[in-house]
Amino acid sequence: MSEPSSAGGETPPRPSRASLRTAVVWEVLQDALDRRVKATGTECLDILDTGGGTGNFAVPAARLGHRVTVVDPSPNALFALERRAAEAGVADRVRGVQGDIHGLFDVVERGGYDAVLCHGVLEYVDDPAEGVRNAVAALRPGGALSLLAAGLGGAVLARALAGHFNEARQALTDPAGRWGTGDPVPRRFTAEQLTEAVTAAGVEVGAVHGVRVFADLVPGVLVDTEPGALDALLRLEAAAAELPAFRSVATQLHVLGEKRG
Ligand SMILES: C[S@@+](CC[C@H](N)C(=O)[O-])C[C@H]1O[C@@H](n2cnc3c(N)ncnc32)[C@H](O)[C@@H]1O
Fold first, then answer.
1. Given this model, what pLDDT does residue 2 score?
2. CA distances from 35 to 143, 253, 256 (A)
3. Atom of ligand 1 nearest to the CA of 56
4. Which fold has domain 19-151+189-259?
5. CB distance 112 to ligand 1 below 6 Å
6. 4-43 burial: b if 16+ Cβ within 10 Å, else e
């Protein structure tokens, strides 16, 4: 299985623990970008990564030959992005812009992108529905939306398995899916909430995947020390990702869709 750091057709390095966070999304995203390349007949797509941070996806996408604009409010993240893009030899294809998903069109063009990524951002924004609408409005007709956000079911399961039963129940009933005041995540979503939001914004949903179904529940030491365990876990995550029963207890949910023409 490839991962973002192995983009560009080179020999893939051994998967790292970080690939547990990115592998499923990257596989799905790469396929979507390939389809868009075929549909548009251009090798170099215009990609927008809203809340792209330090470039976990932006830099690998640029290594595939695409032009990527990252909009993020954090100057520190944008600084790290610039350094990372330079180290990867793609500084000319990655542009960091300080901005916010709510004021997206103050800094980027409406309807100007073949693909828009919105990964790990909706949890933190004031108005997730508006965030989704803006992400979709940045797409050209037929463009691909890649949306990743914290899943409610995964948090409930994780709190319960850690013995925090009241917190697990609290997350289930809390409108924002939070397990208590100490919860570092401001908001979580069900697959239905995410697919409804993107559908309402004008996107045809293509696939919904669960990300990190097992990875956050297994002891880290096992994955780090047991020979072959990381590879086996990555394959298990890939196999379970699209099955609704597992998806509903994943730490994150990934929705891939296409903007209606
Ligand atoms: C969990 S990180 C995810 C980074 C990256 N998308 C990834 O998947 O690795 C969340 C990012 O969202 C950014 N962010 C927070 N609020 C935002 C907003 N209102 N609009 C756009 N980005 C925001 C943060 O600065 C941070 O870089």
1. 46
2. 10, 22, 13
3. 9
4. Rossmann fold (3.40.50)
5. no
6. bbbbeeeeeeebeeebbbbbbbbbbbbebbeebbeeeeee
Percentage of the chain modeled with pLDDT above 90: 87
Residues in the chain, total: 261
Q: Where are the domains of the chain?
A: 19-151+189-259, 152-187
Q: Is 29 in the pocket of ligand 1 (CB under 6 A)?
A: no
Per-residue confidence at 7, pLDDT binned at 50, 70, 90? very low
Q: Is residue 74 lining ligand 1, measured as CB closer than 6 Å? A: yes
Whole-number Å distance, alpha carbon 216 to ligand 1 midpoint, is 21
For ligand 1, atom 13, name the residue with the nearest CA: 51
How sure is the predictor about 10, in pLDDT bands with cuts at 50, 70 and 90?
very low
Above pLDDT 70, what percent of the chain? 94
